[in-house]
Amino acid sequence: MNGVDFGDLKVVLQKSMSEEAVAAALAEDPEAKVAAAAEVAIRYGAFITVLIDFTIVALAIFVAIKVMNSLQKEEEPEPEKPAEVPKEEVLLTEIRDLLAKQKS
Fold first, then answer.
1. Helix (H, G, I), strand (E, B), or coil: what is residue 13?
2. Which of 48, 60, 86, 98 would you call most buried, defined as having the most Cβ atoms within 10 angstroms of its Cβ?
3. What's the start-to-end Cα distance of the chain, in Å?
4. Spatial distance between the Cα atoms of 5 and 43, rounded to a whole number of angstroms
């Protein structure tokens, strides 16, 4: 994406505590549990980056499949075969022709 990176975008819910702040909290009350020193944040920038990457890949696959489908040779439908005449009709036709010869 030409160097555009949304990975740093975030909403900070709780800022991180410095090491001095953690040491001071423990100095006041050694048995106290100190909150984690890590920052609590919602990182929506990474989601936006992944969403854009997914859209680009999906579009590329869609276009590739459309091109492959258009390159496929369309099959011509088979011409319909004439219906076979049943044996009874063939025999009746022969009998009719023989009778017509005898009358003439």
1. strand
2. 48
3. 93
4. 13
Q: Tell me 8's DSSP state.
A: T
Structure tokens at 75: 């099959």
Angle among Cα 85, 87, 88 to the nearest 5 degrees reads 105
Measured between alpha carbons, how far is 32 from 26 in angstroms, rounded to an integer? 7
| Residue 79, token pair as written in the block | 């011409």
Per-residue pLDDT of the chain (104 residues; tens, 9 = 90+): 677 778 888 888 877 777 677 677 677 776 666 555 667 788 899 889 889 999 999 999 999 999 999 888 777 778 888 888 889 999 999 999 999 999 87
The dihedrals phi and psi of 40, each to the nearest 5 degrees, come to -105, 120
- Is-contact 5 49, C-beta < 8 A? yes
